[in-house]
Amino acid sequence: MRIAMGLAVLTAMVLLSGCSALMREPYRQTSRYELTVPEKAGRGSEGNVSVQSFRNLSAAGRKMYFREADGRLLEAPYTDWAQEPERMIQCALTGSFAGYRTPATIERAEINGAIWQFSLDRASKKAYLGVNYEIRCYLKDRAYRTLSGTLQYSAPLEDDTGAAAAGAMSKCVEELAQALEQL
């Protein structure tokens, strides 16, 4: 009797372990994406514009989400941003403004901002970036002038992949950098 009971328990363990092994999903590595903005050619190494801090007021974080038509945010499986949106934008703008010189009347300039929209919209097939910015220009006579405003950009989102999302959002950040440079 004990042998039969032991054999039944052993058989059940083998069968259950086989079932659980068959039901496991294979390991899949998470892909991480960051924003890229082309470097500006022909600039010197002595720029006088510094990108300070950006705050993230949007719902976006390190996980990549796509907004559905009904407003739901669906997580993109196995796909993340390399950093939080505010850090990625700060890094991209720092690279974009490297070596940039303001007009001679301005001693130096600082850029700060708040991100109020950083979203990937499936319904419209677009990436959206919305930023409140503040540029503080320190003049040669120790006075300063502040420029502030709101900018919003969108770029086509080719598909639901992380690479397409990073490309579209990078295009938005590139347009932001160009607009800030013109101010």
Order of helices and strands: HEEEEHEEEH
Q: How many separate helices?
A: 3
The largest sheet is: 4 strands, mixed
Strand content: 35-45%
Helix/strand/pairing category = alpha/beta
Shape: elongated
- Low-confidence blocks of residues: none
Radius of gyration: 25 Å
Q: What share of the residues lie within helices?
A: 25-40%
Number of strands: 7
Strand order of the largest sheet: 2-5-6-7
User: Could you report the average pLDDT, rounded to the nearest whole number?
Assistant: 86
**Terminal-residue CA separation:** 89 Å
General description of the model:
The protein starts with a helix and ends with a helix. The strands form two sheets. Strands 2-5-6-7 form a four-stranded mixed sheet. The model has no long low-confidence stretch (mean pLDDT 86). The chain has three helices and seven strands. With 183 residues, the chain is α/β, with parallel strands linked by helices. The relative contact order is 0.18. The chain is elongated and about 95 Å long.
In short:
This protein has about 180 residues and is an alpha/beta fold. The protein has three helices and seven strands.
Helices and strands in order:
Blueprint: H1 2-23, E1 31-33, E2 49-56, E3 63-67, E4 73-81, H2 85-96, E5 106-121, E6 126-139, E7 144-156, H3 162-182
Parallel strand pairs: 1-4, 2-5
Antiparallel strand pairs: 3-4, 5-6, 6-7
What attributes characterize this protein structure?
183 residues; alpha/beta; four-stranded mixed beta sheet; 3 helices; 7 strands
